[in-house]
């Protein structure tokens, strides 16, 4: 499954908000430096989807607020 994520780094609280079927806004405390925010986003998505087989990978948007993630093996 593929999901589109709008990242909000440097937030006071961490959260995942579902906008549409495969679109989310994810707030993380980590800064957008050195891949810290991307790593935390992947961890939160991994937990949100109950540890999908194959994990979570960023397909595009590594240096952008809008990212495309692959969740699981499908």
Radius of gyration: 11 Å
Q: What's the helix-strand series?
A: EEEHEE
Query: What best-fitting shape do the alpha-carbon axes yield?
Result: globular
Number of helices: 1
- Beta strand count: 5
Give the structural class.
alpha+beta
**How far apart are the first and last residues' alpha carbons, in Å?**
6 Å
Arithmetic mean pLDDT: 94
- Beta percentage is 35-45%
Helix proportion: 10-25%
Low-pLDDT segments, ≥5 res: none
Strand order of the largest sheet: 2-3-1-5-4
Largest sheet properties: 5 strands, mixed
Question: Could you explain how this protein is built, in words?
Answer:
The model has no long low-confidence stretch (mean pLDDT 94). The chain is globular. It is 18% helix and 39% strand. The protein is built from one helix and five strands; from the N terminus they run βββαββ. It has one helix at 36-48; strands at residues 2-8, 15-20, 23-27, 56-60, 66-71. Strands 2-3-1-5-4 form a five-stranded mixed β-sheet, covered by helices on one side. It starts with a strand and ends with a strand. With 74 residues, the protein is α+β, with helices and mostly antiparallel strands.
Summarize the structure.
This protein has 74 residues and is of the alpha+beta class. It is 18% helix and 39% strand.
Notable features of this structure?
1 helix; 39% strand; five-stranded mixed β-sheet; alpha+beta
Q: Which helices and strands occur, and which strands form pairs?
A:
Blueprint: E1 2-8, E2 15-20, E3 23-27, H1 36-48, E4 56-60, E5 66-71
Parallel strand pairs: 1-3
Antiparallel strand pairs: 1-5, 2-3, 4-5
């Amino acid at each position: 499954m593929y999901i589109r994520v709008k990242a909000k780094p440097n937030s006071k609280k961490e959260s995942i908000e579902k906008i549409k079927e495969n679109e989310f806004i994810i707030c993380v405390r980590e800064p957008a430096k050195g891949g810290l925010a991307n790593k935390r986003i992947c961890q939160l998505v991994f937990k949100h989807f109950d540890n999908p087989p194959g994990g979570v990978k960023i397909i595009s948007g590594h240096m952008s607020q809008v990212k495309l993630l692959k969740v699981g093996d499908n």
